[in-house]
Specification:
Structural class: alpha/beta
Radius of gyration: 18 Å
Order of helices and strands: HEHEHHEHEHEEEHEEHEHEHHH
Mean pLDDT: 95
Strand order of the largest sheet: 1-2-3-4-5-8-10-11
Number of strands: 11
Strand content: 15-25%
Bound molecules: 1,3-dihydroxyacetonephosphate
Number of domains: 1
Helix content: 40-55%
Number of helices: 12
Low-confidence stretches: none
Largest sheet: 8 strands, parallel, barrel
CATH class: Alpha Beta
Shape: globular
CATH superfamily: Aldolase class I
Length: 278
Amino acid sequence: MLVNGKEILIEAKRQNKAIFHFNINNLEWTKYILLECNKLNISVILGVSESAVNYMGGYNTVVNLVKGLIKDLDIKINVILHLDHGKSFESCKNAIDAGFTSVMIDGSLKELEENIRITKQVVEYAHMKEVTVEAELGAMGELKDDQVSFGKLTNVSDCLEFVNKTKIDSLAASVGTVHGKYTKELNIDYNLIKDIADSIDIPLVLHGGSGLSNDILKKCVLSGITKINVNSDLQDAWSKGVRKFLEENKSVIDPRKIILSGINNLTKEIDNKININN
Ligand code: 13P
């Protein structure tokens, strides 16, 4: 069933468990993430970036694809369809109008006042339609062409002010992780996670969930993280499978066989990640 993020994240926070956000790119990823999570009987957040929305055809295409798969595959678990890193009110509105059940407005690169203003605008529209809103404070680290920029950690008083003024449903605070498959040691500030989690009463989101061991992810959850976003680890696992298949099967031209050759790795990576809840 397609639901918004509210109850599921609050319940997970209460139980000190993680809910995973897996980014989707196409029909096959969506189908097999849904089938795997349904088999494991866990709620899942399907994260779709603006560029993935454009790649797949548009907001309506994504909504109808997800709804169609839920129906045709008889998916029983709760599924949250979430816009990842919405850059403007307009993109959040487009996602909401098409039927996304959750949106992220990312005003993290703006000044605090402006971030509050745009986030409030999204919350007012989204809550009218029973759609939940995630927003971000502090700048996330980024990995680009093997170069890392470590971003800017956030602080507790900004988080308090931001949450109180915007009435968001979940907060992505920059705590030292990096977007992308960064495998070297990171300085994740577990005390900061704990301090923020203790001072606000909404679930906290960890962006950049790739390249981190399960022990680290577990420590983040025990410190106060509820939602974990994973993209690059799935891409890495899937593409390794496809590369190997193409090298070993030079005459295969059927795109279905090629795309599916990475799916086993993808679902194994999902199984691996969700182990942190056991
Ligand atoms: P990774 O690519 O590091 O897993 O980050 C994903 C993410 O945070 C999406 O919002």
